[in-house]
């Protein structure tokens, strides 16, 4: 009986090891004029400089930061098993910091298999208020303290994080039960490695607009939920190239 149980437990890992894998990458670029971030609070708060509105961050060549991308299986699809390399990260912490009265990063990707460390690196107290569909947290974090939390359930979209003490502070958590998720960097790029080969549904989201609907990605266009299907080829990098977002569509 024990042998049968051990064999059954080993099947998912064996399937993962036998599968074919690929990488997804791309770059989000804004077309059109975007105003620079406005100053939300002057210098001197928490010892930092002026605090800017980070709702929309665009680089000098239109590079769009903080677009969320994640694999979003439909109800008739089976979620993919993680690549063995991701299993090595199970239990490793993910960080969200208070730094100079700003949440860092603005958008953090959370895999439910990993604990989140909410850290306060400022000389004054903050609180982390997270209003999720499945979980609500309101934790006071004094200077130098770390609050550790593990999310048991994924959320359908990124969840807002705020500080009741300092109302300009805001961040977002993309909480998924799969490691196949990413946020674009300051240069507008993202990469998701070791995806199972095949055709998968992906979702695209950005803070000012929510779901990125009607977005042209290669030969397909995202639907009203910001989703489209993308084929991951085995042992290859599927490069979506530059994904253009019109400035006039950014609120």
Automatic annotation (TrEMBL):
UniProt keywords, alphabetically: Signal
Signal peptide location: 1-18
InterPro entries: Cupredoxin
Source species: Blastopirellula marina DSM 3645
Protein name: Lipoprotein
